[in-house]
Amino acid sequence: MDNPPKKEGYFSIDNEVVEKLARFQLSGTEYRIILAVLRKTLGWQKKEDRISTSQLAKMTELSRRSARRSLESVVNRNIILKNFGRDEIVPGSINLLRFNKDFETWRAKDEIAPWGRKCAQKYARKCATQKKRKTSSKIILKKEYFDLVDLLIERIRLNDPKARVADTGGQHEEWANDFRLIIERDGRSIEEVREVLIWCQEDPFWRSNILSASKLRKQFTQLILKKEAMQKPGKPDPAELTRKEMKQ
Prior knowledge:
The chain has 11 helices and 3 strands. With 248 residues, the protein is mostly helical. It has 2 domains: 15-119, Winged helix-like DNA-binding domain superfamily/Winged helix DNA-binding domain (Arc Repressor Mutant, subunit A, Orthogonal Bundle), CATH 1.10.10; 131-247, no CATH class. The chain has a 3-stranded antiparallel sheet with strand order 1-3-2. Helix 10 runs antiparallel to helix 11. The longest helix is centred in the middle third of the chain and has 20 residues, at 117-136. It is rod-shaped, with a radius of gyration of 31 Å. 18% of the residues are buried. The mean pLDDT is 81.
């Protein structure tokens, strides 16, 4: 049918609006939210309307969570206006929404901060990682620290030849930095660290628990105490003591 008749209930959209939406980078859920807002406003010849999240979820067949996140996204990008900057919003009231025809004020995704709790957490972790890398670039990792890394990997693989430990250069640096912290910050000597490392990888209990440099540092005090206890006669079974303390 070349010219299908218009059924009862329809609304028109300006060509410039359609063209702008067609060119603007949006996700599928964002498009659905925008169309739902257009339907509830222009579809009723209104500039704005109070539209709840549950209404948007029902119209778009999205979950309430997805509808809320997508709405916040298009609001942050200034495509949909919410409450129009009013200072006094009654708590619990439904948001007043309007489609923004001032296209010059629309913002691309790279112009706004990440939205949503998970995205915010991910963004914070990314910033923390970048800051850590910048800081770590100033840290000097000595050859002795990498020697300890190699020794720990060697001992772990003696117990399990197929163990996947510190398989990348970045992991080697992380482990070397852990050894640096043990020596420089915790005040342990290289020889002391080497002895504890070898002992824990020979101990039936600890060799299955110490599988990284960070774990070695975390348990270092306990490892020293157990090692010394084993060397003193008349002491309780150190393996049994270890199991009891690990349960506490």
